[in-house]
Here is the input.
Amino acid sequence: MYILRLYAGITDEEGNKLYETAPYVDYIFTTYYQDHNGDTLEIDFRAPSIDHYETDGVYGRIYFSEPIDHNTVGPATIYATSGKQLTYQVGEVMYNGKLVSVVVVSRVDGNNIAGTTVRITGAIKDLAGNIKGYLSTHTF
Here is the structure.
């Protein structure tokens, strides 16, 4: 997994600047099965999966196998089976030498997450648009 950072001040040979409203933009990309001596890149066809779960008192953590699209995380895709409302924070961390997404969930009422059962639908997508495709259930 690589991060490409493009700065707004980049210019081409004729002096034209890259049009950006932000000082820089980060792009995350992967080179699965890349032949680094060639110019071809195999398309990411792998669906994201859940690697493991962790709990830390108030918070539960769901680790995915790769970075996921943050816009696909919410009450329609990760929810408590008891009907309790959850909050979501999504970020990326290095885990076992690769960049993965972790979703931190907690209960809106502030109570401990222990004993809460959550369902993760198959609608979660990775950055290439591949869907998870199956329902997962876990009790923290």
Q: What stands out?
A: The two ends are 29 Å apart (CA to CA). The domain at 50-139 is CATH 2.60.40 (Immunoglobulin-like). The beta strands are 2-7, 24-29, 50-56, 59-64, 78-80, 86-95, 98-107, 117-120, 136-139. DSSP finds no helices and nine strands in the chain.
